Amino acid sequence: MRREPGRVLNILLVDDNPDDRSLVIRELSGEFPDCQFSQVTQLSQLTLALGCGPWDLVVTDYQLRWSDGLRVLMSVKSRWPECPVIMFTGTGSEEIAVQAMKAGLDDYVLKSPKHYARLPAAAVMALDRAKQRRALREAETSYQHVFDRVPAGLFCATQDGRITNANPAMVEMLGYPDRETLLLVNARKLFANASQRRRWVAAAQRSGNIEQFELELRRYDGKLIWTEINARAVNDEQGRTRHWDGSAEDITARKRAEAVLRDSREQLRALAAYLQSVREEERTRVAREVQGEVGHALAGLKTELAWLERKLTQGPGPASLSLVLERLKALPEAVAAMLATVEKITTELRPAVLDDLGLEAAIAWQVREFEERTGIKCVFDSKVGKAKLDPDRAAAVFRIFQETLTNIVRQSKATQASIHLRREGDKLVIEVQNNGRGVAGRVISGTRALEVLGMRERATSLHGEVNIVSRQGSGTLVGVRIPLHRAGELKKN
To answer: For every one of its 493 residues, what pLDDT tens digit does the chain have, with 9 covering 90 and above?
Structure first.
């Protein structure tokens, strides 16, 4: 052992025999010239010496008049656990040596001339082992210090699932009151899903390194969390897995966000398909109206004009001229009917009153038209004052309102509806209440769900919102809140 320069080695010598003490001092001084010895010959001296430590080395006899080497060893270890102890005796036995070694003795040297030379070598080895133990303890302390302060969850677990270590982040992630409570749990019981555990076992058997393995774990309170595990196998000298070191990250929030994003994408795909279907239905309806009403009227007008042309080219007499004049007088009425039909179709596509008189007048017109068409009694109340929206926002709000009326007809079986239009701060609010059947909880699905999603998408594009409150048998309230101005736009009243 190489001593640190300038450092004196303090050795505690416990022996009743002065000649044996001198022998020990002689043998060890040759190896450690600068060492200092403190000699103990009775129990009170031992107690005092142990209180004055620490000691670099203790050498004790086994047979003492006031005690024995085993009791000395235990006293030293209880006070200074890392202090090396050598038993130098001529009265012990193999059984005593084994018992002492189990209690922490570093070496056992017999008091005989042929073994004297072993004492310095035993002291060197004992001191070296003590130094190694201190270095290992310091390394373990440093490792545990870092281990405990890593913000990610860290763990060590054996092959059979016994958790041997876990840092505070791991304990907190799993919701356990303390590390000790978690270490009592077998890791196998933390798995929330049997199939995931089988996948984990298969992955561990295939490779000694597992990366980004996602699985659900059960917390102390029974709640489930999603985690991402990275782990590696630590093998012994024979290549057998001794334990696993790993890290765990709580990815529950990420998994929820992924699920929301996935659902959102599915909803958007469904909404796109639904809107395309609605557009096709609208085109089909307009085509039928044009063909059915305007087309038939034009065909009739064409026939009428052909008849008049034929009569006029044949040189009609007074009687036929009177008939021609009568037929000509009917033409303006037919043309007016066609114009009315065209105006009706145009109004359904986009009412002129929305552009000419604004949103409030357009909603009032739509309420009257809806009441006449469906027979559902409507009450309209407006308190918007001078609030105005730009044409694009007004058109979007009007379409949302039309969709709420459409839903009343399709879904609610209502007989009454009240519509309230008002201003709340910088927002325009429309509330449509009906006395229909309503729906319970979240029972909104299929086409109706897509219709609601479409309304909400329109509102979201305007930085607004659509809220629906519906109870079984108590009707439905649809509330729409839309900012009067675009984000960042200068507000003008």
So the answer is: 445 555 789 999 999 999 999 999 999 999 999 899 999 999 999 999 999 889 999 999 999 999 999 999 999 999 999 999 999 998 878 899 999 999 999 999 999 998 998 999 999 999 999 999 999 988 888 888 888 989 999 999 999 999 999 999 999 999 999 999 999 999 999 999 999 999 998 998 888 899 999 999 999 999 999 999 999 999 988 888 989 999 999 999 999 999 888 887 777 776 666 666 656 666 666 666 666 667 777 777 778 787 777 777 776 566 667 777 777 777 888 787 777 777 666 666 666 677 777 888 888 988 998 899 889 999 999 988 777 778 878 888 888 888 888 888 776 678 899 999 998 888 899 999 988 876 554 444 444 566 677 788 778 888 889 888 877 667 888 999 988 887 655 444 4
Q: Do 116 and 33 belong to one domain?
A: yes
Which helix (H) or strand (E) covers residue 88, if one does? Answer: strand 85-89
Same domain, 371 and 457: yes
Residue 488, in any domain of the structure: no
CA separation for the pair 170, 459 (Å, rounded): 43
Last residue of a domain, one of 110, 125, 146: 146
The helix or strand, by DSSP H or E, that contains position 191, with its residue range, turns out to be none
In a domain, 200, yes or no: yes
Q: Which domain does 443 fall in, by range?
A: 351-483
Helices 446-461, 252-289: axis angle to 10 degrees equals 100
Structurally, the chain folds into a number of domains equal to 4
Q: What is residue 117's DSSP assignment? A: T
User: Which CATH number characterizes residue 219's domain?
Assistant: 3.30.450.20
Same domain for 441 and 368?
A: yes
Taking residue 477's Cβ as centre, other Cβ atoms within 10 Å add up to 16
